Amino acid sequence: MITNQLLQARASLLQSAAVSTRLVSVPQRGYLPYHQKKYDKYFKPQYFDNVQRTPDTLGKIKYNTQDPLFFDYANENVNGGIPVILENIKEKGTYKLPLRNLGFILYHIAKNDIYDPNLFGKFEETYREITSVNMTARHNMGGVYGYYRSNQGSRYGLDYWEDHLQKNSAFLHVVDIAELVEGFSYNRTLPREYFRQKLTEVHKPVLLKNWQKEASHHQRMLFIFCKRFHELQYYDEELWSLLVKDVEKKLKINNTHFFSTFYETFSEINKDPKNPFFQKLDPVLKTLGTTHYTKDRQWRYSLENGGHWKSWQTLKDNRESSQLSDFLIKKAEIDQKVLEQAKAVERKLKRLRMAKLSKDLFDEIVSEMLKEKRTLMEMMAELDVDDQAIYDAQERIAKRNTQSQQAGGATVEKKAPPAEKKVAKK
Question: Basic and acidic residues compositional bias: what residue ranges (predicted)?
């Protein structure tokens, strides 16, 4: 009997415990939005996998972490770098990849100076089978850059990538063309005239369109184009006019290497009779020599003979004549006139604050404003009062003026006439 009662009590306890556990809300794993597949478009955006991506306005151009050709070289000890990707491709034999992935791989093969002509040949065998869907102009640039800089692959592969680049050239940016110019400077298989023609036909319209917002205020872009165009002997008058104009109006040139490149290049162009800018850059050279040839550059750089870096022996010989005080960073001298103006403004503001405590001072300021023919709105704004306060001040001023006039008239009447002088009769 007792055993049955114990069993029934135990069963009831277990049943109540089960009910209580069902009532407790246990959090489920994966309940956050970024764990759910339907929200992937918000938490895993792929802007550069779609041609119709965000518009390329001035505020949207950020080729940093959103660069479709970006690779995390800072953590190369963790991810293994590009060689790991290439080994994986060779082991699996998956040479038929989306064209945007091939552009990424070719770009970083050239960046890492990896020499593997067989890999280029394997990729070229798949060009006829793959499509260029969801490929951006930046990917196109990466493929062309890989062929230019690495000096690998056949002419067929280069033409294939350049055709795609020409179709998407309207979506290129100045930084893309700057990288192409840099990449071609390493090329030893194509003639210089070939790339000069490409610059004129394909890339010049893009440069002229985007120069103002992407190159004018970017000194490194100006430095790259000045150096590489001069090496290519590419002297297009429109592009060089923009470059020279931007360099001339700079208030500060970032470092001496930029300054030396600009000065030496412009000096050579100015002395070349065959150049379209022959003897036209004298004002620019004068500006560079006066504005940007500072003391910090004079001790190690010379403007003689078109500009050159001073030798080590010259620096040793001149070390005694250099004074430390010439290179100390000092506070700029403040103009005394500006200080006086600031003090006058401060005195005026103090006087306006005191006018709220003294009616006589307030009336004095109002009378000065009336003499200056200020409007009622100007007086209200400057004194920070309403119109009634100004009307009251005008009444007090008028009353004070009438009282002073009456007092002046009374004193004149009270004043006795001068006594007549008596003249003695002869």
Answer: 412-426
Is 267 exposed, middle or buried, given 0-12, 13-18 or 19+ CB atoms closer than 10 A?
middle
What is d(CA 358, CA 363) in angstroms, rounded to the nearest whole number? Answer: 9
Do 151 and 116 meet the contact criterion of CB atoms below 8 Å apart?
Answer: no
Structural domain count, the chain: 3
Domain boundary, last residue among 150, 184, 214? 214
Residue 229 within a domain:
yes
Asked if 234 and 199 count as a contact pair (C-beta separation under 8 A), the reply is: yes
Is the pTM for the entire model greater than 0.70? no
Per-residue model confidence as pLDDT tens digits over 372-413: 888 888 888 888 888 888 888 888 888 888 888 887 766 655
The answer to whether position 326 is within a domain reads no
Tell me: the pLDDT tens digits for 146-180? 999 999 999 999 999 999 999 999 999 999 999 99
Domain contains 170: yes
The SS3 of residue 273 is: coil
133 in the same domain as 85: yes
